[in-house]
Amino acid sequence: MRDIAAEAARSSASPTVERQQRRGVVLVAALLLLAHGALAVGSMWEASTTFDEVSHLPAGLAIAATGDVRLNREHPPLVKELAGLAASLLHPRLPLDGPAYARADQWQFGSEVMFETGNDPMALLRAGRLPVVALSLVAAAVCFLWARQRFGDAAGLTALALYASSPLVLAHATLVTTDAGATCGTVATMWLWWRATRGRRDGMLPFALCGLALGAALAMKFSAVLLLPMMLACDLLANGPRLGRHRLLGWAVALAASAVVLQASYLSLDAPLRYLRDAQLVYFNSAPGYRYYLAGSFGARFPQYFVVGMLVKSTPVELLAMAGGLAVAVARCRERWRDDVYLWLPGLGWIAAMSALAAPIGVRYLLPAYALLFVLAGALMPELLGLAARRQALRRAAPALAGALLLANGVEALFAFPGYISYFNRFAGGAQGGVRWLDDSNLDWGQSLYRLPQWLAARGIHHARVAPMGFATPPMQGFGVTLEPMRSEDWQYPRPGAYAVSAHKLVRALEAAEHGAPTDWLRRYRPADTLDGSMYLYVFPASAR
What we know:
The chain is α/β, with parallel strands linked by helices.
């Protein structure tokens, strides 16, 4: 399964040199994992409650306290359970005897837990988010191991570097939502499936391990059901249409193992039936008639949404690497396509499935595809090294260029810290240009409210009117700053003073302006400043009215 050039290089090296190289690779990989964890923890430490976390984390706390999976049923429970168990160590107050929990009102119950019962929301969030960071680190390690086994050491480090420094990955590796968990489960399932179906071992252990990963993926996000047809397609294409006894038994073992994980996550004997029923609730809480936003337009559907989203939310290096990995796979399709199909088919298939089936509210839905394509992009490095070895003029230039690009990607991640949710690449106008392209979880999810008072104080503003996104409200006092809610009439006739307005609210005000309301602040007024591209500061003098 390993790259032929990499194997030849290893065989020619002395055992001592080979051991030193292996230790060096492991050390660099450990440093990249450490950097990913540090960036994730650092960015989530002062990120306030995002929209979905209002329901996800309290639902997990309720499961940890009661064992009853009754809240937030439109998402499987595993990520919520892990986050809830971690946050429950803080012994928060839970209104389990109140009417909101009795009627399974996840939003009211979540609001009570986070903002109304005396709990420290930031402490709960920090504790609950740590297991999600751990899941992202597992996904990063799998990317490294898969690319290393498939293409060699340099490829493993390349794939890991891309994953570890991806702003989109970092944005959702820090939140109590399902996306990082689904990414971890997806890439682990496909890696283990590749090892099980393409390996030479005849035992059932590889299939059982794959089944456990599949079960975890299913228990973290309903879209993981896409793995089943993708696994079957990869198996049939790579190994032939005839399923022999060994492969049929492997399928049975994998499915049985996944059922065990699913049953354990639901804490119920009727887990399969509950899973099927709850899967029908996806988008149950979506606002009827909600019009999605893409590049200045509002509509009920945008088939091109996720492709455009990738182009504006990915770093330039990521786009080059993913395109290059696909190009390498096509160029050598006659030689090693049977192994490559486990990467490009589910990667591209996931993008196509989301474009056809998912609501266009977040490029985060493509995170599993990013991880798979990062592994495939690892193939670029040994190709460049091989090209450099064959051409004297490129012997130093090609590796140096590849290393510089990966370093530039890491530097871009550092400069985007901690505003990863609102990251847009420079060709899209950066974080300040995000409102021209996308909305919802791509732009502002309420993540910047905790830092808002300090940010305003640093600009000499001690009183402001605020229009936040979602349920979360910032502290009314802090750093000498007082905040008051923005009135609805302020949109049309802003009173003199400072306003801190959510980017999401500004986009939705554009929609209202289509019906004649003078609420299009993005076109009417120039902001004084922006906080991570998610909160816009407007200052109106006395003559503005």
